[in-house]
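Dissemination and training. As part of the outreach component of the grant, students in the summer workshop were shown how a complex can be specified as a set of sequence lines and then modelled as a single object. The example used during the hands-on session is reproduced here so that future cohorts can follow it. Participants entered these lines:
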Amino acid sequence: MTAMAEGSAPRSAVAHLAPDLPDRPGGAVRLREVAFPAQVELRLDDEDATAFGPRAGQFLCCGMPAPGHAAGAGDPYVLWLGPGWYLAVDRPGSAYGLLAGLRDALGADCGGMCGSAVDVSAARTVLELSGPSARAVLAHGCLLDLHPRTFGPGRCAQTVLAQAQVVLHQTGAADYRLLVRTSYADHLVRWLLDAMTEYV
Amino acid sequence: MTGSFRTASGGTRIDRSRTLTFTFDGTTYTAHPGDTLASALLAHGVRVVAQGPYTGRPRGVYSTGAEEPNAFVQVESGPGEPMVRATRLEVHDGLRASSLSGRGRLVDAPDTGRYDKVYAHCDVLVIGAGTAGRAAALAAVAAGARVIVADDRPGIGIEASGELTVLPRTTVTGHYDHGYFVAVERRTDHLGDAAPARTARRRLWHVRARRVVLATGALERPVLFPDNDRPGIMLAGAAAAYVRRYGVLPGRRAVVFGAHDGALQAALDLLDAGVEIACVTDVRASTGPLGDRLRERGVTVLEGRAVTGTESGPDGILTDARIGGDIVPCDLLAVSGGWNPDLHLFTQAGGRTRWSAEHAAFIPGAPPRVPIDVVGSARGIPGEAAEHLPEGADGLVFVDLHRDATLAGVRDALQAGMTSNEHVKRYTTIGTGADQGRTSGVPASGALARLLGRAPGEIGTTTQRPPVEPIPFAVLAGRDRGDLLAPARRTPMHGWHEEHGALFEDVGEWKRPRYYPRPGESMDDAVLRECRTARARVAALDASTLGKIDVQGPDAAAFLDRIYTGRISTLAPGRCRYGVMCGTDGMIFDDGVAARLAPGRFHLTTTSGNAARVLDWLEEWLQTEWPELRVRCTSVTDQWAVVALAGPRSRDVLTALAPGLDVAAFPFMATREAEVAGLPARVFRISYSGELAYEINVPSWHGLALWEAVMAAGEPHGIAPYGTETMHVLRAEKGYIVAGQDTDGTVTPHDAGLGWAVKAAGGWVGHRSLHRPDTARADRKRLVGLRPRDPAVVLAEGAQLVAEPPPAEITHPVPMLGHVTSSYRGTVGSFALALLKGGDEREGETLYAVDSGRADAVTVTSPVHYDREGARRDGDG
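and obtained this result:
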């Protein structure tokens, strides 16, 4: 994998909607894009997870998350996507190192890596939905119960929102990240903007 | 009937300090906030609010709530709505409504109002906010539960707080499995024009509840008698409620007819409100203490006697009640036969009701298999009630006012041999209306029981199904309409395509440019121009929608050998191979290219619409059949934007864009990592057009930059963008199939002319099925080419192929030999691909393609219409 070339700025899948995003500090609900974090998808089977999960977690300095949870508060952080299935996320431009480190952790250096590590940095658009009404906005389409008694900061889930597959990651009391496939990002953002009608 | 029927004071639900105006059937009236259309009309002495749907007989307000069988009206103001109960329609300034005869009119103007949906979860859902419901809700809140209270009335005497959600004007319409409920909240209907445009007019609630408290109360049921449908006849409890809640006298001189103490209590209430009681008659032999109280107040109380008929004026409105030989003038006949617990939501989820003589009603029996508590009147109101069925044949005895269905109909059903209440329901239509038979169901069961000489419990009630009342489609659609109806997946270059005049086509959820017409060009013109540009110079296609899967692991090659019909394990790193996947039945499932990036790593492509299914397919085999294989699959469809560059000049364009790539030494069916236009790229030299071609993959966020760079670098070579239509023409000219268009789940690789892509050795999915006698038949349909005899004709895709031109009059079945799968006008002229019995053995034969009554002579050819030698693959030198 070639490192990202200099001077070629990535372009957001929702750049054309940027002026419409409500991003007023203190607003009932805010939506903004978290631009271009590095993302690597990890797949391990159960045995691999036992043996190599801790190595990967050590490399990432945040451990590996339990089912339904995220690990790491800042960069990097790791989301549990399913059994033996993780998404490691780090600051923009760090995909090369992230990928190399994870491949090493999975035993690539001793030949025959277990599981897989794939750079998917450009596969998902990361959105941040926050504010006192953020949970109410999500409830217009999210079937999961996001009440603090059953969900909360540090939790994550793969689910469907606006007919699009999303990873929902709660980062604060009223802060959510939505990771969506870039081709669906335009649709999801327009759906969210419409869902906010009564809140902004 | 003139003068105001509004009392001087009182009315718990109305605000007498303000006056509203509304229009009914063209006449303007006044009302107070809190009035329903029914109470406001009664206050003005408007007795006729509807007509029977079949008899056309005038009908009046019969109840106060959801049980109303008569007073369905058409709302004409605002967005309009058919079949709205006047008993629940809150009057607002400017409301316009008109009477109906049991059928509403669909409003033909688009409803631009906002409707939305909410998914909610709670520990306890309380349905009904009467005394019992409120008590249950407060107890649950005190215990720390998350509680939702829903009631279809506007006012709920309970405040939302912390974990208590209060939903007034909300009807729970369905109780489904596992504590799942659907409810409709009417949020701004009552505001009329003052409704804020940004507020959803109605909201569909999807509620998951751990347990449910049904506090839905009990509904009054009528007693049957001849001519029981005249305006002025209403349920006795409702008559009293109009006085109490709205300060409205439903009449000035009343006859009360009942079969239980509830009727006597209603008579006392009406008396207290200042209504003259002409007499009270009860079918029971004794009326007990309540009867004594009425007599003490000077009311005539008849025992063991029934109303036997009614009289009306020319307008059909009640003037007298007949009790045997007595004729009693009255303008209100208040009737009450007992209380039915409202158990729709109990039985919808599988609960059973049972007849209780103690309650004279069907009460909750075996509960559904969900945690459910029935509280308050919904458990049944204790007290005896007499059964009564009129004997005489004078006048019509309506069992279901809403359906205009009579007791004579029930007798007819019995004459026809029916004994089940479900059969009688369907025969008579009793209980099938929008009111769900709330006032007719139990009387119908009672009548059936009496006529059959059985007990009511033996007859039971008919099955109640959701929804408990009609839900407008606009509510079900919510925000899933217009642009938000379905996701449109966009490639990173979508905006460029729009700016450059592309017309789009839907491919799965994707929007793909179909062609880019220039001013004055027809679709045929544009597609032919794009085809010629690709064949003669260079053209670019946005191929980002291709499904892409990253397959990694020490066993990846062995795995792919088992999935593809061809051998993948012999690929050298850096090389690609076309691959076909079959189902276990040996039929083509998908095709694409497998590229080996490293010994244990592959990049697969799939057809655009099949990406998710292929990934699921791989996962299914890995997880269920071959868990021992150390292979992991990851979707990278959205990671990569792809520009397909096709045409003899494509090498020049790539050379200009990728100075670091040895383009000259880049063989066909190979892949290279390179910097293209300054971007990190993965380039494949593969061709879906037959021309020299490359597919350049870059991270999707660079897709637009790559596309613009390709267009700029191609400009000196006359580059043009091309769309999916041109892609199809180019691939079809070469005889390349589209899985799902030229195949339909009955086509083997051999049938599609892809035998060369099938390895002899077994051990792969579908191999065994290809050795059945059926898949070896010589007369299987196989892929061929067709040329219409008339070159001006483009055959219809799907046209049937027959051996003889069809006769003018078809007298016998004509054997079908095959059908057209792809048909275009391309650079080679009009041509088609088809599946044909006997396939290539028929090359040169003349057949007929029949479609929509038209038959065109066609010549069978090779499926490859262009460059059969494959000379174009490496460009034109």
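Chain A touches chain B through 55 residues (CB under 8 Å). Students were then asked to discuss how this feature might be tested experimentally.
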